[in-house]
Amino acid sequence: MSDSLGSLQGWSLEQRIRRRLLVAFASLWVLSSAVALYVVEDETAEVLDSALQEVGQRLLVLPESALRDGEQDALFMAIGTHEESVVYQVYGPTGAMDLHSHQAPAAPLDPDTRDGFRDVRGWHVLTLNRSDGKRRIQVAETRKHRVQLFSRILFWLVGSLAFVLPLASVALAVILRQGFHALAPAHAELSGRSADDRRPLSTEGAPDELQPWLASVNGLIARVGSLVDMERIAAAETAHELRTPLAAARAQAQRLLDVTTEETARRHAEALVRQLDRLTRVATRLLQVARIESGATLRREPVDLVVVARLVVEEFPEAIGSERLRIEVSGHPAEVVGDIDAIAVALRNLIENALKHGGKDAWVTVLVEDGAIYVVDDGPGVPAELAGQAGTPVRTRHHRRGRIGAGSGDHQRHRPAGRRTPRATVADRRQPGVRGDPAVLSRRAERGA
């Protein structure tokens, strides 16, 4: 079973079609050669028989003086040394041989004296008798000559296939490759799309044979798009529905905290408030993910990355107070074109991951430099084998040197802030720590983007 599956892997449709066409071409060539040989043999035999009849008729009307010279023996025609394929014999009224070609045998070519063609001892013999009975001629052609003639015809009919077949193979390869170029537009359109581009493939200009395939692909894209939309809608609705009861529960927990004076009960109430705040953040993040994934409301407008960085950093007052989080600005003005909310979501997630997974004593620096935002920490770093997996959707990795991933957060980091894919990297430096680059966007002013 595995052998049969392996034999189906890596095969070329172009080569398979070319081989089959060449086999069909060669088979048809041999078949047509056989038919042609049959027709040529029949027509050639008729022509050769007609030539024998013409020679015999000329010999029948020769004058007697051309046959004998007085009382001499029978004459024979000798024109140098050459190979004769046709010989003749001329007999007089007494049955004696009066004239013969120099390679004609002494015995009669055909013992039968009746008119007509007969094959006798390797000869194809024609016998003709004059109407007055005074002369009989026999004209013959060797069977070997006819066999050689037809063999040569067959050789050139079939043998030429050895020259034509390689040329046909090259021609078929060129024609098939040109034909398969009809797939190039669909391939280029698919390979050049982003992951969230679910537009149907264009069928304009595609051949009829490709239309069903394109229709199936477009149907699949539509079904996948419907499933993704349903998933996003469900996540957004779930998160939205959770926010109201979570807000009510937090209000009740906060009220309980305000009216409770017993120390143990207050600690439990504070823990409850923190957990409710965490659930609220998770629900908010789900809404953000659904919004970024859909791209329906993403805006393209000038964004000052310094302002975005400062606003997001201010959302972590505890880290700022303990000097674990700081912001640095260097380089040229960092104005880009994008969606400020999407950039803020990605940056907020990077800062949260750095504070959470970098270690309790790690410091985190948000660096705005030359049109990009970097989040750098001095934690234990990311192993090389895991750095390439950072940002994979819903991926969590644990390692003794640290852990990376935060579910939906990492997924957000790889989404474009302006509907174009940014560069998002996790670089493990020589010294401890990790630098995360959430977005590199085109500049609007100084570079004319």
Describe the protein:
The chain has three domains: 150 residues, no CATH class; 86 residues, Orthogonal Bundle (Helix Hairpins), CATH 1.10.287; 142 residues, Heat Shock Protein 90. Strands 1-3-2-6-5-4 form a six-stranded mixed sheet. The protein has a five-stranded mixed sheet with strand order 8-10-11-15-14. The C terminus is likely disordered. It is of the alpha+beta class and 449 residues long. The longest helix has 49 residues. 49% of the residues lie in helices and 17% in strands. A hairpin with a 5-residue loop joins strand 2 and strand 3.
What can be said about this structure in brief?
The protein is α+β, with helices and mostly antiparallel strands. The protein has twelve helices and 15 strands.
Judged by helices, strands and strand pairing, the structural class is: alpha+beta
Mean pLDDT: 75
Global Rg: 49 Å
Looking at the structure, what is the overall shape?
rod-shaped
Biggest sheet, spatial arrangement of strands: 1-3-2-6-5-4
Whole-number count of domains: 3
Number of helices: 12
- Give the termini separation: 56 Å
Lay out the secondary structure.
Elements: H1 2-7, H2 13-60, E1 75-77, E2 86-91, E3 97-101, E4 116-120, E5 123-129, E6 136-142, H3 143-159, H4 161-180, H5 184-191, H6 211-259, H7 263-294, E7 301-304, H8 305-313, H9 317-321, E8 325-330, E9 335-338, H10 340-357, E10 364-369, E11 372-377, H11 384-387, E12 397-399, E13 402-404, H12 408-413, E14 425-428, E15 434-440
Parallel strand pairs: 1-3, 8-10
Antiparallel strand pairs: 2-3, 2-6, 4-5, 5-6, 7-9, 10-11, 11-15, 12-13, 14-15
